[in-house]
């Protein structure tokens, strides 16, 4: 049987060369280990159960068998959804629960196999982004929130931007000036969060339908899980000075994501729907034209 691959596959280059195969392999391996563990837990005390009541082994078998079938169903649905880009087996609504259950175990399994945890998280973020693209293609400018980490602000800056990002002097010492330029051009919401609590407050106040979040692999992985079912498209930041200090974001990738979810690239591209075409940013004289299109969508 030929299973079609997702039409929304993204380039590995944006995720440190990590592909979705790592995520799919770890999901399958983790699910098999969980099933084997449940089977072992059921088999060991079966003799003792029979001594208590003759029906107890059968009841325990039904319970553990149901748990094994549930794990297989959820894992297979997640793998097929990640590969094809289409929800299958009715598991799309339970994707958040499945990820919360399997991702920590996948990281442990990756450590045991000497796979760096950041690679596992990058693979998860890549798969998540492809699923977001397939499930939530377009929204209006005011419904899209660009959420930035506080470490993107220059450590030498004296302005406090957490609550009022417009206090930025736009000096160009950090990427915030360029991000605000995207906000002004496309009409999307932009905010800076210093942590998970502030991020949740911002989301409640902004009430977006979709979030484009910039952060490291750890924060993106946890944020994607915390906000589910609200879709989050993750853009991994660049950390030339180490973690949490004067980080950067690829403005072209960020703009490409904004354009994709606003449907601007789809209007201009002749190739119709696709994964890589909408996420290829176009700059120059077209920015003014795209800004006018975005204002019409608002």
UniProtKB/TrEMBL annotation:
InterPro entries: DUF116
Chain segments annotated as transmembrane: 21-43, 55-83
The keyword Ligase appears for this protein: no
Pfam families: DUF116
Assigned keywords, A-Z: Membrane, Transmembrane, Transmembrane helix
Record's keyword annotation contains tRNA-binding: no
PANTHER family, sorted: NUCLEOTIDE-BINDING PROTEIN-RELATED, POLYPRENYL SYNTHETASE
Name the record gives this protein: DUF116 domain-containing protein
């Amino acid at each position: 049987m030929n299973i079609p691959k997702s039409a929304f596959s993204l380039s590995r280059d944006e995720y440190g060369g990590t592909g979705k195969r790592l995520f799919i392999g770890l999901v399958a391996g983790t699910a098999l280990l969980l099933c084997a563990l449940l089977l072992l837990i059921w088999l060991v005390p079966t003799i003792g159960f029979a001594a208590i009541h003759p029906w107890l082994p059968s009841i325990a078998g039904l319970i553990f068998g149901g748990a094994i079938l549930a794990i297989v169903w959820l894992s297979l649905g997640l793998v097929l959804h990640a590969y094809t880009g289409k929800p299958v087996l009715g598991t799309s609504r339970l994707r958040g629960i499945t990820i919360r259950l399997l991702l920590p175990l996948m990281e442990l399994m990756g450590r045991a196999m000497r796979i760096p945890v950041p690679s596992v998280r990058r693979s998860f973020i890549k798969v998540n982004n492809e699923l977001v693209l397939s499930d939530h293609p377009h929204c209006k400018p005011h419904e899209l929130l660009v959420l930035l980490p506080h470490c993107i602000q220059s450590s030498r800056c004296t302005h406090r931007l957490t609550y009022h990002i417009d206090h930025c002097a736009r000096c160009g010492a950090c990427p915030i000036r360029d991000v605000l330029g995207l906000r002004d051009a496309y009409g999307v919401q932009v905010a800076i969060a210093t942590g998970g609590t502030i991020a949740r407050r911002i989301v409640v106040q902004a009430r977006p339908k979709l979030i484009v979040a910039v952060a490291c692999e750890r924060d993106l992985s946890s944020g994607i899980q915390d906000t589910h079912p609200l879709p989050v498209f993750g853009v991994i930041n660049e950390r030339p000075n180490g973690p949490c200090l004067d980080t950067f974001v690829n403005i072209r990738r960020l703009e490409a994501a904004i354009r994709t979810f606003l449907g601007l690239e789809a209007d201009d591209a002749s190739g119709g729907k696709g994964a890589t075409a909408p996420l290829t940013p176009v700059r120059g004289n077209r920015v003014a034209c795209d800004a006018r299109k975005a204002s019409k969508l608002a």
